[in-house]
Amino acid sequence: MSDQFDVIVIGSGPGGYVCAIRAAQLGMQVACVEKRSTLGGTCLNVGCIPSKAMLQSSENFDEATHHFADHGIVLGEIKLDLARMQARKSEVVSANTKGVEFLFKKNKITWLKGTGVIKAAGVVTVDGVDYAARHIIIATGSESTPLPGVEVDEKVIVTSTGALELEKVPGHLVIIGAGVIGLELGSVWSRLGAKVTVIEYLDRITPGIDNEVAKQFERVLTKQGFKFRLGSKVTKAEKTATGVTLTVEPAKGGDAETVEADIVLLAIGRRAYTDSLGLAAVGVETDARGRVVTNGHFATNVAGIYAIGDVIAGPMLAHKAEDEGVALAEMLAGQAGHVNYGVIPGVIYTWPEVATVGKTEEELKAEGVEYAVGKFPFTANGRARAMGMTDGFVKILADKRTDKLLGAHILGADAGTLIAEIATAMEFGASSEDVARICHAHPTLSESVKEAALAVSGRALHI
Questions:
Q1: Catalytic choice (66, 71, 338, 442)
Q2: What is d(CA 334, CA 228) in angstroms, rounded to the nearest whole number?
């Protein structure tokens, strides 16, 4: 047996590395297993961070190409240097992953480089070497969900990983799946000049978010050039000399047709990544979707083995994994770690952004909860007008009897930042009246949040 630790975390994504840091802060001897040559997991290396770098760069390109003239900024010929854009993305990724490595050194966390397998309760094998730990934490994240008939090669049929590495702008990008990942990456390549078609099995985009927001979001993206084929399914993808031929059928049955694409992005969701951990051999229970089964303290059915993040039930969000990592580390230290799953925001980083927290109208109706709605459009917000970004609205849902905040849904500029105010208010059990009574700076986009809160009781001032 090699070194012994209080905690060994398998996986260095946001959940894993944050859990490791918090456990080290609490005085534990910690190791983290990571097979990549850099820390940070999918999020920092091939997910959240590189996609946001490309979203920002492509947004800048789109602004310079189509919108600067509206502000009196006249430029000469604008050219796309995709190689430089990709290089900048890599620089951003490197800065973030090196930052995590610095934090590991600062907190005296041992990086066990290699593939980790749970040999037994209390023992993790990393590339043939056994390490002992009082607590083993599974934080291996997720991977792209496959689709029968669509074979990924990360060249012409890609997941999000390959879609971030394209060496030229595709003439026609076809995205299978109208969820967060597909729409974000579709936005990148659409801004850079690609024709984008989205094929979705359901009759709506962004399943799970507020239906009213989804409908207006679809209209906004359509105006930007997206083409949607809803209620459709892809049954086959055949690579050709010039790209890919997709066979597409109506979801509810009907005649098939073909769609030609230069690049196909498969983005129908993600699944827990647990295959190589040896869970079956040690008796760790998983559910029908391959997720690790845990109790309210993140413990599995095997003593001393825990799991957090995308490998367990709940939304596959980096910040959810981080909160779980902190809570578990504090629990292991004898403290009262806690995650409020009712107040976990979600953001789609298109432009405009979509942000949501708490319940949707559809959920409240299904639960029989009586609620009041307050809405405010960005067209009536002075700062949004000055920015030239008036698409969207803020919607706030509150209990009809008590006025307690139940949820908020925003489509608009900086929605991901604006949602934090509502999340904070909900965490403290605030009412819409509480938010409405807060003095918001003028002129700011955040005034739309105040106005939506006022609108819950019919008191909006600027509509």
A1: 442
A2: 51
